[in-house]
Design a protein that fits this description.
0% of the residues lie in helices and 51% in strands. The radius of gyration is 23 Å and the shape is elongated. The protein has 181 residues and is mostly beta strands. The chain is built from no helices and 13 strands. A hairpin with a 2-residue loop joins strand 9 (111-119) and strand 10 (122-131). It has 2 domains: 1-45, no CATH class; 50-180, Jelly Rolls (Sandwich). The chain has strands at residues 18-19, 30-34, 39-43, 50-56, 74-76, 80-81, 87-88, 93-105, 111-119, 122-131, 139-151, 156-163, 167-180. The two termini are 38 Å apart.
Length: 181
């Protein structure tokens, strides 16, 4: 048996392995293993979907790196939106957060551009890019940053962008999806 590994999962062999609370039993309950008691308990799984998307088409300058978004396209699932730049988590769980920004610059030279996702003010995911020797006319750079995070109720999500040397954010998009409880 060299090289073969097995793990033992908790078995449901008799009704003595189950502790069902009859006063709370409901449709769509599931059995969940409780490692503290060593028994299977009835419970629920919160599968409430969360989808939040917001889009900004107007230009943003470098003077304020936190992006002030427009009205959300979708806000399903109870998260809070302050109307400016902060999304507050309404349900604990795993979230897929995706932030895209199109940066436009017109000046030849070296430029450093930085975008980020922040949770409670702390950068949790970021991307940077250097544009060298832009010739003439407008040059466009599409930047994307995404992160899968476990978030708690009232965590605050913001995005920021720092565009150096006469650049603007031409278009940007933020998408937040709760992928599991």
């Amino acid at each position: 048996m060299s090289g073969i590994y097995s793990t033992k999962t908790p078995e449901l062999s008799t009704l003595g392995d189950v502790d069902i609370n009859l006063s709370t039993i409901a449709n769509n309950d599931v059995l969940q293993y409780n490692s503290t008691t060593g028994q299977w308990d009835n419970g629920t799984i919160d599968l409430t979907p969360v989808l939040f998307t917001v889009y900004k088409s107007a230009n943003s300058t470098t003077s304020n790196p936190v992006i002030n978004w427009t009205t959300p396209e979708f806000n399903i699932g109870g998260g809070g939106w302050d109307g400016a730049g902060t999304y507050t988590v309404g349900l604990t769980g795993y979230y897929d957060i995706n932030f895209q920004a199109q940066i436009q610059t017109n000046t030849p030279n070296t430029r450093a551009n930085f975008i980020s996702i922040r949770v409670n003010g702390t950068v949790v995911s970021s991307a940077n890019n250097f544009m060298l020797n832009v010739t003439s006319g407008a040059e466009y750079l599409n930047m994307v940053v995404s992160k899968l995070l476990y978030l708690n109720i009232n965590d605050a999500i913001t995005t920021s962008a720092t565009i150096n040397q006469s650049g603007v954010i031409n278009n940007s998009h933020l998408k937040i999806i709760r992928v599991s409880p």
